[in-house]
Write a structure and sequence with these properties.
Layout: E1 96-101, H1 113-123, E2 129-134, E3 147-150, H2 155-177, E4 181-185, H3 187-192, E5 195-197, E6 203-205, E7 212-231, E8 234-250, E9 258-262, E10 272-273, E11 275-277, E12 280-283, H4 294-309, H5 324-339, E13 351-353, E14 356-358
Parallel strand pairs: 1-2, 1-3, 3-4, 4-12, 5-7
Antiparallel strand pairs: 5-6, 7-8, 7-9, 9-10, 11-12, 13-14
Helix pairs in contact: 1-4
Length: 359
């Protein structure tokens, strides 16, 4: 399960967030330097200052010379080295490019926090990030990005996105085949499959990237949830909040994102949660998911950097961060999920029939 850092060297704290104040530009304003991450100055780089001339009137008497100490004086502790991701300082990386699909349409349950988590955890390591919002009627080349985010929404907003998504699907399919990291939540999961049929019998065609199909069901799964996720041989617990009535069935062409520990997962029956194909990760977990799961966030960053730099998956290592707050949030969410173990919904026995709650 979650690996703690007991017994390891202490990790430097993360920088405090900056407070931005809007003010008038003063006279003599200087633009921000082009290098946002300047090289750390070394002692050899600093030009020594000339010694000050001694003033006999104020110069103190020299201290009496003493014998050398019997025991050597310990040297000062070394200054912590800059964070590395492989062999060079992380400022040497090209910017991590993130495409955020439909941020004005699909952003329920705080899913936008996934973007913030990716940005912060990259920037805390000195890796610059560029984010592009991809809205309706915009069709970029998704192969030019490193990560694509595709979040959740209600059926009305999802239908609007689905009609537009048909134009974006070919480029996104090419990006997925090329190894671009895609992280999808709820509606994003459903629209990456073959089709979604709502409770009102409305059919929304998907991108055919994931071998799955979803149909609206009579019950809403709405509760804290948890699952076990394995990436490159490492298994961790991922937590979040599920809120959907879709019944998703996986085909033979993709595997699940994880195995359910608590909650309903894809359909409340088979014990599977989400879907995965290559570097495409899709889940029903809102919350938002990534801020409470730093391990998963770092895996997405690591895979994206590996593809961007042409490195094997096992050759990219991220510098550790102090994740005390993130791990506390994770543990609280896991405790809530386990407390609700065995129930299908936090509102049991509430049910949905064609979108209407009864009972």
């Amino acid at each position: 399960m979650s690996e703690r850092k007991n017994g390891k060297a202490p990790v430097p704290p993360k920088p405090a967030p900056k407070t931005v104040v809007v003010r008038r530009v003063p006279t003599g304003y200087e633009a921000e330097p082009a290098d946002r991450y300047p090289r750390i100055a070394r002692a050899a780089d600093v030009e020594p200052k000339p010694p000050k001339a001694a003033d006999p009137a104020t110069e103190p008497l020299p201290a009496a010379r003493s014998d050398p100490p019997m025991f050597p004086i310990p040297a000062a502790p070394p200054v912590p080295a800059p964070h590395f991701t492989r062999t060079g300082h992380s400022r040497d990386h090209a910017p991590l490019r993130i495409a955020h699909l439909y941020p004005s349409l699909l952003n329920v349950a705080g899913d936008g926090g996934n973007l913030i988590a990716l940005q912060r955890r990259a920037e805390w390591r000195g890796i610059p990030v560029e984010t592009v919002a991809v809205e309706k009627d915009e069709t970029p080349d998704f192969t030019k990005f490193d990560i694509v985010l595709f979040h959740g929404g209600q059926d009305v907003e999802m239908a609007v996105a689905a009609r537009d998504f048909a134009r974006k699907s070919p480029s996104l399919r090419e990006a997925a085949a090329d190894g671009v990291v895609v992280f999808a939540v709820c509606a994003g999961l459903q629209l990456l499959g073959h089709r979604y049929i709502s409770n009102d019998a409305e059919e929304m065609l998907g991108a055919d990237i994931l071998d799955l199909e979803t149909r609206g069901g009579p019950q809403r799964f709405m509760q804290h949830a948890a699952c076990e996720v394995t990436i490159d041989g490492v298994t961790e617990t991922v937590v979040g909040f599920e809120n959907h009535s879709g019944l998703t069935e996986l085909g033979m062409g993709c595997e699940s994102f994880g195995r359910v520990i608590a909650g309903a997962g894809n359909n409340g029956r088979d014990g599977l949660e989400g879907a995965r194909f290559r570097n495409v990760f899709a889940t029903y977990l809102h919350g938002p998911c990534l801020p409470k799961n730093p391990w998963l966030t770092d895996q997405l960053i690591r895979l994206a950097l590996g593809r961007a730099e042409g490195l094997p998956r096992g050759r990219v290592f991220l510098a550790p961060l102090d994740d005390e707050l993130e791990n506390r949030a994770h543990d609280v969410a896991l405790a809530k999920a386990m407390a609700n173990l065995g129930k299908r919904t936090a509102l049991e026995p509430a049910r949905l029939v064609r979108g209407q709650k009864i009972g």
